[in-house]
Each structure stands twice: as structure tokens, then as C-alpha cells.
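This follows on from our talk about sequence and fold. I would like you to pick a protein and set down its sequence and fold. Go ahead and set the record down below:
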Amino acid sequence: MKIGSYKDLNIWKKGMMLVKEIYKITENFPPKENFGLTSQMRRSAVSIPSNIAEGFQRRYHNEYKQFLYIALGSSAELETQTIISKELGYIPDKEEFNFCEESKYLSKMIFSLIKKL
């Protein structure tokens, strides 16, 4: 399959799925978190596919790698925020575990692409 756009990348698609999941998860957070954890988690989630897309459009592999490393950092940030959410009782243990597993898988995919570049 020819990769003509960042939208063809499985890592971008997986990142977009995570964004949707985070938006659903955070819908039920307490209103007091709207400008705190809810906002931070959503921004971290959105950062992942956004940086994958932006890096794809860059002309040089080193630039692309830099954006992929930023996406990796955002993934780790989001995983940490998910754990915090569980610790605060905003999400159940199982949901936190499943999300963290998905996040780790995406991070492995991103790192694999970095190595290939």
C-alpha cells in the first residue's frame, strides 16, 4: 500500500482513536476538572496524532523524527494523566489498564517508525 498522506498511517489512525476515547472518558469527569485534568488530557491526546501528521509533512527525516519524539512524549504524559485519573477515582481500574495498554502499543508503533527513519 502506498502511503500518500499521514491519514494512511496506522499510527495516526490509532492516535485518532485514542483522542476519541479520551474525549469520552473525560466527559464524565467532575466539572471542577474542566480547566485542569480534563483539558490537559485532551490536549495531550490531540498532540499525538497532530505531531504525527505535522512530522509527516516535514521535508527531512530528522525533522519527522523530532515530531515523532514529541508524540511519544505526549503519549507518556497522557498515560500518566490516566493513572492520576484512576487514583482520583475518575475512571475505573479496568478502563485505566485498557487505555494504558493501548497507549503503550501506540508508543511502540511510533518508536518503530522512528527506528525505520
In short: The chain has one domain: 6-24+31-116. Residues 61-87 form the longest helix (27 residues).
